[in-house]
């Protein structure tokens, strides 16, 4: 599994579709999400070019550092999420290392942000993706299968946010106005796992 190529595909998707995220955030928040995300990924590219990381852990450390130095509430949360991938993957991507990393990562975000599944946040995609990876590892599926199942679970989780009433984040301030809007953070998580499967 070439994690650097995975991150570069993810960044390319955000370049291409970031305006969709900004529009979702404009309808349910303050409209700066897509801009902050593109800014973070610009820093990711700079870090990857400067550090030339050779292991999955080093790649995700470069990603994490970029997000931790980005504004908005989602930047630091994604930064901590990616930090757990850096720690969990280390030198090799296997179904078990992915499952362990994703499990620690979503638990960290839930602890820091106070969000749970059903609160209309990135957690709605992170948790099912982690559960899918754990299930795939348990039955000794290969990495490709595990990531495809994680992507499908994250996508279903992101779609589920559309009709939820937000309990956390800026969308919670606009109440019913955010109903009918997919959470941009959850959608980002879905796109992240999808990028791993292409």
UniProtKB/TrEMBL annotation:
This is Dihydroxyacetone kinase subunit L. It comes from the Bacteria. GO terms for molecular function: kinase activity. It holds the Pfam family Dak2. Keywords: Kinase, Transferase. The gene is dhaL. NCBIfam families: dha_L_ycgS. Residues 1-198 form the DhaL domain.
């Amino acid at each position: 599994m070439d994690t650097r190529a995975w991150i570069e595909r993810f960044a390319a998707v955000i370049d291409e579709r970031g305006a969709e995220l900004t529009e979702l955030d404009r309808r349910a928040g303050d409209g700066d999400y897509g801009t902050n995300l593109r800014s973070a990924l610009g820093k990711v590219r700079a870090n990857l070019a400067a550090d030339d990381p050779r292991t999955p852990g080093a790649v995700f450390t470069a990603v994490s550092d970029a997000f931790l130095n980005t504004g908005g509430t989602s930047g630091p949360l994604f930064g901590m999420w990616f930090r757990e991938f850096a720690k969990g993957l280390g030198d090799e991507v296997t179904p078990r290392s992915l499952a362990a990393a994703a499990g620690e990562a979503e638990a960290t975000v839930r602890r820091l942000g106070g969000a749970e599944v059903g609160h209309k946040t990135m957690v709605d995609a992170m948790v099912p993706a982690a559960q899918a990876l754990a299930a795939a590892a348990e039955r000794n599926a290969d990495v490709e299968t595990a990531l495809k199942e994680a992507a499908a679970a994250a996508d279903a989780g992101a779609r589920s946010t559309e009709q939820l009433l937000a309990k956390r984040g800026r969308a919670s301030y606009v109440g019913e106005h955010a109903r009918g809007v997919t959470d941009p953070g959850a959608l980002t998580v879905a796109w992240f796992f999808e990028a791993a499967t292409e």
